[in-house]
Write a structure and sequence with these properties.
The protein is α+β, with helices and mostly antiparallel strands and 92 residues long.
Length: 92
C-alpha cells in the first residue's frame, strides 16, 4: 500500500461517516488529482469506498455537481486494520 493511499485513508478515518469530494480530500492531504482519483477509484472497486453524485442543481449552485466518497463498513474495518498493523509493528 502506497504512502499516498495511506494518506487518503487517514483523511477518511478522521471522520469515517463523512462524505468527501475529491477536491476536499486533495485539500486535506495535498495529493495531486492525477494520483488521488486513481486511488479513490481503486479503493471503490475494492469495496472500501462507495460514491455518489451530490444531489444539487448545478445551475442553482453555480458550480458542477461533485462526486462524494464515503468509507464502507468493510473499508473502515480494513483501513483500521492497516493502521493497527503499523502500530503493532512499531511496538513489537
Amino acid at each position: 500500500m502506497s504512502l499516498q493511499t495511506l494518506r487518503v485513508l487517514e483523511t477518511f478515518l478522521e471522520n469515517p461517516a463523512e462524505q468527501l469530494a475529491g477536491a476536499e480530500v486533495h485539500q486535506r492531504c495535498g495529493i495531486a488529482s492525477g494520483t488521488l482519483y486513481p486511488i479513490l477509484l481503486r479503493l471503490e472497486s475494492a469495496g472500501w469506498f462507495v460514491s455518489q453524485w451530490e444531489s444539487i442543481d448545478p445551475a442553482s449552485a453555480g458550480r458542477p455537481r461533485r462526486r462524494l466518497y464515503r468509507l464502507t463498513s468493510t473499508g473502515l474495518r480494513r483501513a483500521s486494520e492497516v493502521f493497527a498493523s503499523f502500530n503493532r509493528g512499531v511496538l513489537a
